[in-house]
Amino acid sequence: MEEKKGYRASAKHVVVSPTKLRRVANEVRRKPYTEAVAILESLPQKGARLLNKVVKAAAANALAQNKNLDEEMLYIKELLVDEGARFKRVWARARGKRDILLKRMSHISVTLDEIAGMGA
Length: 120
Fold this sequence. Notes:
- By secondary structure, this protein is of the alpha+beta class.
- Helix content is 34%, strand content 37%.
- The protein has helices spanning 18-28, 33-42, 46-65, and strands at residues 7-14, 74-92, 98-114.
- It has a 3-stranded antiparallel sheet with strand order 1-3-2.
């Protein structure tokens, strides 16, 4: 089994539904880093701000580990949005009943890599 190459960053227990985050994540998957950041900064969704933070953290990890890299040399190799735990809240209802409100959380993980390896 081959070792995964790339520079990673992740955010756990982000209080946004995974389906809302995936809608934004699909816009920037497999794009160059600078283009992805420009797209995320122009989108109005809360998920775009959260994804932007994680993508920038992965880029900071890449630039810290490899001093020869530049931001233009990076692209988003992998962008995963997984489902996390759920907050369970109770709504009081008529006649002593209740409904359960689920506040969904997400785990975001980003892997950046050098553009030279993009063809593989």
